[in-house]
Amino acid sequence: MKKIVLLAIAVIFTGLLTACNQEDETNKDKKDRITPVETAQAIQEDLVIEKEIYGRTQPASQTPVMVQVPGEITSLEVENGNTVDENDLIATIAGRNIYAPKAGQVAKLSADEGSVVSNSEPLAVIADLRSLSLQFNVTGDDLALLEKEETYNAVIDGEKHEAKVTSIGSLPNETGLYSIEAAMDNEDAEILPGSFAVLHVPEQKVKDAIIVPTEAIVEESGESFVYVVNNDKAAKINVTVKETQSDKTAIEGEVKKGDQVVTSGQLTLADGSKVNVVKAGNKS
């Protein structure tokens, strides 16, 4: 029985020794081979953390096309989505020509030629798309982040625009949210009503922080670290992540302003690995 126990201990010890040797060999291989990497320069500045608020675009103004005398539409010159100039012919009703009251896009036209229309409801509306209203519903906490007449970045269809807050609701609606409106230019009328809009509102600021690209951060076994390149070798440096804003992360640790941190190829590195920088960035 004693021999069996000793034999089992010997087998376990041998296995552990083999595993350690294999790990040592793996780390040695990582250090000996030359790994191509890409780097970016660590910078020191304030990192602004932004809150994203979601909403939709609407025409800044919509002008009704009214009919003075009810009657049959004998000629209809436009359809929904058409762009018209001021005084363009819209329709002929009961021998009277109906003209566009202003330039814009025809919307909410529900009648056809031969239809009989009344003078109590608009025949259509002309939406002015040269300026847009961005409409959002926000919580009370988000309301405190916004200021009337302040300009914020708005992203629509992947493009960044400037939007000025024109109205902040003082009372919540039935769902407990507050209405926010912002105005933005759309001179070329490229953005359509109903487009999805994301308003970026500063929420907090990390002052005078060391900032690296978020992709440079490696997380393993509960630790966060980056690789800094010096003399064609990668040094593994443990860091503490303070805040992350999209592609930028503020960190604490021994990384300094100007250090070249590895942003691509770091997953195959070990502390002391030889590297070949194939692409170096000037800043994060």
UniProtKB/TrEMBL annotation:
Residue ranges constituting the Multidrug resistance protein MdtA-like barrel-sandwich hybrid domain according to the UniProt record: 65-126
UniProt keyword terms in alphabetical order: Signal
Residues passing through the membrane, by range: none
GO molecular function, one term: efflux transmembrane transporter activity
Signal peptide: 1-19
Highest taxon of the lineage: Bacteria
Pfam families in the record: BSH_RND, YknX_C
A single GO cellular-component term on record: efflux pump complex
SUPFAM superfamilies for the chain: HlyD-like secretion proteins
Domain YknX-like C-terminal permuted SH3-like: 210-277
Protein name: Uncharacterized protein
Keyword Membrane included in the entry's annotation: no
Family (UniProt): Belongs to the membrane fusion protein (MFP) (TC 8.A.1) family.
Keyword NAD attached: no
